[in-house]
Structures are given as structure tokens and as C-alpha cells.
């Protein structure tokens, strides 16, 4: 360990060391990483040193950016590399691209690119780590319009299991480039990425909130509406049990409400306004729709900023009908045994198209992404898990059988990870894993085990 500390600019901490708890802490507090060593990488050479050390000692390696998914697969033992110190954005406004370092949050990227009238394909929560979000797919606010964030990556700098720092693109290292965009942390630690930016400064968006008494009408109207809207319209619908706390205004405090979130990239705000008219006609109790700067788009979902503990699960769904809606209302509405957020993000549009440079993202035929979250402050695992299981079971007839890696939480069985990919892509991924990480040192994650497959490019 001393030798490693000599080679690393950032801290190298064992459980007995002061600072260990702060360094391993992530945004999610439900499950904590407990590595043998945590390495606070300050530069790519630190990542190389940590990976080489772990590989020499036969230890597994995990990575943490902001820790928004640290509850997903918590590291027990091994070496955890934290990247928060590696935060940087280099903008090339003429090319419409940005290079983003491993530990950078989306709000830092947005702040930089907005000055040039450009926006990244960031998601609902601006404080999520840009690199891991993108490697896991990256379902963006504007993904129906532009595709997954992973579809717009030009190049990646990655430290592979052999400790080498490689720059991979479609022209140099196409297999690894393909696998990393979707395979996330199974093939190495990405130290930086070059991404395309979109010519977006403002959008038409916000939230419509309805009382639960109108839930059946709102869900029914929304599903019919979503089937007809152009790909400039991005939206989701969520049934939310709001906590009884002063931060929530009356009359919503402590109640179940239905939230329709809108992010329309039509250019003309009038076009967005015309499109949402059927939803507005139902009579929301709160309406924040209007033109807003992309830099303010985090207000649409208003995701929690403070660290917290939650249990969640996900499934990809096909077209939904009134029976599916009734199942959601019965199992997650006011009579549910635990408070839920049940969200359906509308897919399709550009998400259904293969990108110009293919990647490992699967399940492009799904129509909705189901995300179910319950906060552990309001119920415990023994109450939440069976409640979520009942909901997923009830919605099984509408499931495509797929999952979305970025929203997978404790689901780490091989069958669950496999469901994030198409069958042939999964075989290719296990083959490439055998080439680039044959000892599976990158296994403190939603793991793709090494299989038999092609030789490296
Ligand atoms: C409130 C909230 C809102 C969200 N909204 C969206 C959304 O709109 N769209 C969407 O697609 N996702 C969304 N997510 C999911 C989020 O994108 C993923 O959880 C993402 O992986 C978080 O990255 P992180 O760095 O913040 O988390 P971390 O917990 O630090 O990392 C998550 C995973 O990425 C891996 N990883 C981290 N850094 C690297 C690296 N440099 N190289 C390789 N692997 C790495 C880690 O091994 C870990 O498995 C949301 C999550 C939350 C909690």
C-alpha cells in the first residue's frame, strides 16, 4: 500500500485511516462501499497505478464518480477508485464537442457549454456523474429527439485491466469503443470522454401536477397522447406519494399526485404549447410549463439533491393499456403498503434507431422505461422489496423482458444484467470481456463475466 501511495497524487486510504469514510461516501446512502483501499484519483496516472496495484494483488476494482448508484452494487473489499478530483470540461464550440473528465457532474458541463449555446444530452438530475451516466446509456431529457447520450460519444480515454491508458474511438479500438458505450465499468475505468453537444439553449418544459383522484383520466389521456406526439416531444408520467414535510406546498403535502414532465425541443415554444393542450385540458393543480433555459432544465424533474437512501427497480415496457394503469394505481396508489414513486419515461423516437456508430445499448424497441423508487426513510427493505416485487409481477404482461442499466439498483444476478442487452450483443460483450479483463478484476459492478469470443481488434 505504501508503494501505491508513493505513486498516487490523491489519497490512498484503508478503513483505519482518517478520511476513509468521507472518501468512500456516495450520494446514495442505502448501501455503502467497504473497500480494503480507497484511492482518490487526481489524474489518469493515479487510476493506472491503482488498477495495476489491484491486478498485481489479485484484488477486484470498483469505481465511484458521484455515487448516485453506489447502492447498486456496493464494493466489499478490493480497491475503490474515486474520481471526484478529476473534474474538468474542455469545450470546442466550433466542433460542437466537449471533452469531459471522469469525475465531472452534468451541471458543470451544462454551465460551460451553455455559454456557447450548446447542451449535452444530460438527464433529469444535473448532479449525476456525466461519464458513468453516458457509459450506462444515458437516457436524456431530450433523448427521443437525439438518442441516448452513449450514441453521441466520439472517443474515450480508458485504463484497462492491464493498467494501460488507451484512447479508443471508432477508428482505433472499435471493439472496446463499442463495448464501453453500454458495458460501462466492465472493461476499464474511463478517465475522460469526448461527446457531441446539441444546438439547444432553451426548451419548452416543466411539470403538470394532478390530484390522485384524476389519476386514471391523466394516465389514460397521457398514454393516448404519447402515442401520437413527434420526436421533439420528450415526457414522462409519474405517480408520486409526496412526503408530509413543510418543503412540499399545500395542497400536495402528504398526498398522492400524478406528475407529467415535459421537455420539448421543437424550437418554437408555441409548438410545445399546442402539443400539451390535451394534457392541460384535464385541469392540473400545478402547472409550470413554459420556455426555460436548458441550464434550468433540472427544475423539470426536481430530483433530490441531498444524499439519501432509496431502493429502486426498473423494467422496459411495451405499449400500455388501462389494465396496466389500474395495476399501478392499485399497487402504488394511496392503498399501497409503502410510499412509491412509479415513473414511466416515454421512449421511442431517436431512441429506437441505431446510432451512426453502433454501441452495446440494448432494448431499443421498448416504448416505456418503468422506474420504481421508495425512500428508505419512509419504509425499510423488508417492506419495500415485496411491494416492488408485486408491482413488477403485475406489470409482467407488458414487460419486454429488458432492463436499463442506469436504473438497475440491487439487481445484479447475471440474468438481470444480461437483460440490459440484446442476446447477440451480450455474447459479444462476454467475448470482449475475456479479451480485455480475463480475470474479471472489474467485477464490483453489474457484472458481465468473461466468456468465449472474438480476438481483440
Ligand atoms: C436522482 C437520479 C436521477 C437519475 N436520472 C437519470 C436519467 O435521467 N437518465 C439516466 O440515464 N440515468 C439517470 N440516473 C442514473 C444514473 O445515470 C446512474 O446511476 C449513473 O451511473 C450515476 O453515475 P454516478 O457517477 O453519479 O454514480 P456512481 O455510483 O459513482 O457510479 C455508477 C456506476 O458507474 C460506474 N462508473 C463510475 N465512474 C466510472 C468511470 N469513470 N469509468 C467506468 N465506470 C464508472 C461505477 O462503477 C458504478 O457502477 C439517475 C440516478 C439518480 C439517483
UniProtKB/TrEMBL annotation:
One of its GO terms (molecular function) is FAD binding. It holds the Pfam family FAD_binding_4. The keyword Oxidoreductase applies. This is FAD/FMN-containing dehydrogenase. Keywords: FAD, Flavoprotein, Oxidoreductase. Signal peptide: none annotated. InterPro entries: BBE, FAD-bd_PCMH, FAD-bd_PCMH-like_sf, FAD-bd_PCMH_sub1, FAD-bd_PCMH_sub2, FAD-linked_Oxidoreductase, Oxid_FAD_bind_N, Oxy_OxRdtase_FAD_BS. Residues 31-200 form the FAD-binding PCMH-type domain. Gene3D superfamilies: 3.30.465.10, 3.40.462.20, Uridine Diphospho-n-acetylenolpyruvylglucosamine Reductase, domain 2. Its cofactor is FAD. The keyword DNA repair does not apply. Belongs to the oxygen-dependent FAD-linked oxidoreductase family. It comes from Nonomuraea rubra.
Amino acid at each position: 500500500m505504501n508503494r501505491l501511495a508513493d505513486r498516487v497524487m490523491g489519497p490512498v486510504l484503508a478503513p483505519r485511516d482518517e478520511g476513509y469514510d468521507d472518501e468512500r461516501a456516495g450520494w446514495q446512502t442505502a448501501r455503502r462501499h467497504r473497500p480494503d483501499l480507497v484511492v482518490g484519483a487526481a489524474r489518469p496516472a493515479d487510476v493506472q497505478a491503482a488498477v495495476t496495484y489491484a491486478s498485481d494483488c489479485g484484488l477486484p476494482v470498483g469505481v465511484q464518480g458521484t455515487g448516485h448508484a453506489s447502492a447498486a452494487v456496493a464494493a466489499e473489499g478490493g480497491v475503490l477508485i474515486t474520481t471526484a478530483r478529476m473534474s474538468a470540461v474542455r469545450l470546442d464550440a466550433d466542433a460542437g464537442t466537449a471533452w469531459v473528465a471522469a469525475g465531472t457532474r452534468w451541471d458543470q458541463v451544462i454551465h460551460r457549454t451553455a455559454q456557447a449555446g450548446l447542451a449535452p444530452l444530460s438527464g433529469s438530475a444535473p448532479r449525476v456523474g456525466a461519464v458513468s451516466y453516458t457509459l450506462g446509456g444515458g437516457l436524456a431529457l431530450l433523448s427521443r429527439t437525439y438518442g441516448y447520450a452513449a450514441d453521441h460519444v466520439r472517443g474515450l480515454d480508458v485504463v484497462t485491466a492491464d493498467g494501460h491508458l488507451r484512447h479508443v474511438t471508432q477508428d482505433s479500438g472499435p471493439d472496446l469503443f463499442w463495448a464501453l458505450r453500454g458495458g460501462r465499468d466492465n472493461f476499464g475505468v474511463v478517465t475522460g470522454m469526448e461527446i457531441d453537444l446539441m444546438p439547444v439553449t432553451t426548451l419548452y418544459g416543466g411539470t403538470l401536477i394532478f390530484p390522485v383522484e384524476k389519476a386514471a383520466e391523466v394516465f389514460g389521456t397521457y398514454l393516448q397522447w404519447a402515442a401520437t406526439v413527434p420526436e421533439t416531444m420528450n415526457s414522462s408520467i409519474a405517480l408520486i406519494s409526496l412526503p408530509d414535510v413543510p418543503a412540499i406546498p399545500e395542497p400536495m403535502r402528504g398526498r398522492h399526485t400524478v406528475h407529467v414532465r415535459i421537455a420539448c425541443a421543437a424550437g418554437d415554444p408555441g409548438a410545445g404549447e399546442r402539443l400539451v393542450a390535451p394534457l392541460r385540458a384535464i385541469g392540473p393543480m400545478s402547472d409550470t410549463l413554459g420556455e426555460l433555459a436548458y441550464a434550468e432544465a433540472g427544475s423539470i424533474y426536481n430530483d433530490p439533491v441531498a444524499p439519501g437512501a432509496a431502493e429502486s427497480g426498473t423494467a422496459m415496457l411495451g405499449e400500455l393499456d388501462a389494465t396496466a394503469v389500474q395495476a399501478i394505481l392499485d399497487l402504488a396508489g394511496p392503498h399501497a403498503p409503502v410510499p412509491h414513486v412509479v415513473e414511466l419515461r416515454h421512449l421511442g423516437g431517436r431512441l429506437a434507431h441505431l446510432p451512426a456508430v453502433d454501441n452495446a445499448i440494448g432494448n431499443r424497441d421498448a416504448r416505456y422505461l418503468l422506474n420504481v423508487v421508495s425512500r428508505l426513510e419512509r419504509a425499510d427493505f423488508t417492506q419495500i422489496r415485496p411491494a416492488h416485487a408485486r408491482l413488477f409481477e403485475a406489470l409482467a404482461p407488458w414487460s419486454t423482458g429488458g432492463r436499463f442499466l442506469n436504473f438497475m439498483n440491487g439487481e445484479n444476478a447475471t440474468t438481470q444484467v444480461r437483460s440490459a442487452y440484446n442476446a447477440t450483443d451480450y455474447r459479444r460483450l462476454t467475448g470482449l470481456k475475456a479479451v480485455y479483463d480475463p480475470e474479471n478484476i472489474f467485477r464490483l459492478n453489474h457484472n458481465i463475466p468473461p466468456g468465449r469470443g472474438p480476438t481483440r481488434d
